[in-house]
Amino acid sequence: MDFAFEDAHHQLRDTVRRHAEAEIRPQAREADDTERFPKALFRRWGELGLIGARYPEADGGVGMDKISDCIIREEIGRVSQAFGAAFSAHGHLGIWPIWRAGTAAQKVVFFRPALAGEKVACFALSEPDGGSNIRALKTRAEKVAGGYRINGAKLYITNAPMADFMMLAARTAEELTADAISLFIVPLPDPAVAISHLAKEGLKGSETGLVHIDDLFVPDAHVLGERLGTYPVILDSLTENRVGVAAATLGVAKGAYEEALAFARTRLVAGKPILEYQAVAHRLADMATDIEAAHWMVYHGAWRVDHGSLDHADAAKIKLFTSEAAFRVTEKAVRCWAAPASCVIIPSAVSTATRWSTSSPRAPRMCSAT
Ligand SMILES: Cc1cc2nc3c(=O)[nH]c(=O)nc-3n(C[C@H](O)[C@H](O)[C@H](O)COP(=O)(O)OP(=O)(O)OC[C@H]3O[C@@H](n4cnc5c(N)ncnc54)[C@H](O)[C@@H]3O)c2cc1C
Question: Is residue 2 part of a domain?
Fold first, then answer.
């Protein structure tokens, strides 16, 4: 079996890396510090064709494959995990369902402007009482003349504070069946939708919202595909996106590894680079091994998406392994910095570790070992 990248994939990676280094990295720290994502970046991603990369040309996309989408996500994640989250919520979760199941009119009004980065999307599924258990969602849509009246609450919604429309999941019946769950497209702002900004401990440069929906009217024309029971679309969207999220975490791991390796080559202790000390070399070897395994899982998964053979369970395994590998790698990266100074670093989260590793040549927070 040969899963080698094609020339077009290598060229894409070079292009996105140049963009990420020149235009994302300089903004990532400020976004983390201010907890505000630079919304104008979506237009830039639209101009560069990054949002539309994996969508067919017939729908306004670039017509590349899922492998290309994962390369883009990896390169964004390599520089900023928070920006990768914003990209995922917009370029996949918020608009993939419209591409898959939307009407022609919904594609014109919402999907195409989103590909261009002119409108920013978010996807609202999770609720205060239920994230993993999708079928338990309580947000209720009741049929009224000309549309639906919706009430409920959504939690942890990426991009919500700056979104121009929301892909909203709600139930249209009391019974806990898949047929009762549908998607509604909600232009924002709307006086019936209150969105507050959630402060987080990590991923701060990605804006996350708490959403209260109070007697929101959604016309029939804004029901996704103008039909109820689009729960399978949600599942398929989440499955494909798990590979994209995994690609972003692979980028996080690679970024941290590169920084740690560069530091280990140049940091001298007792006259020699710390890379030559076994404790550090073993750490770097473990990191490289995790990255190699994650790399193959991600790109084999992307290849399976392109061939229509990726199932829900394997997508979940790819995301599970890759995100945990990224956690291990970033933690070890932080410890490479800690080792020579005989200091202790207390890593708190992958995103924090990533921020240290990608934005500072030295770990900024150390406390003396006592
Ligand atoms: C930064 C961030 C961004 C997010 N962005 C979005 C977004 O854009 N849109 C959106 O809709 N949601 C978003 N989410 C929500 C995310 O999808 C949910 O947090 C996730 O689905 C988990 O749901 P929960 O937080 O309610 O945890 P719970 O479902 O309450 O789970 C709590 C714990 O119990 C475990 N658990 C749950 N069920 C089972 C089970 N059956 N068997 C064994 N263990 C179980 C879970 O693994 C977890 O460890 C975001 C979350 C975060 C943190």
Answer: no
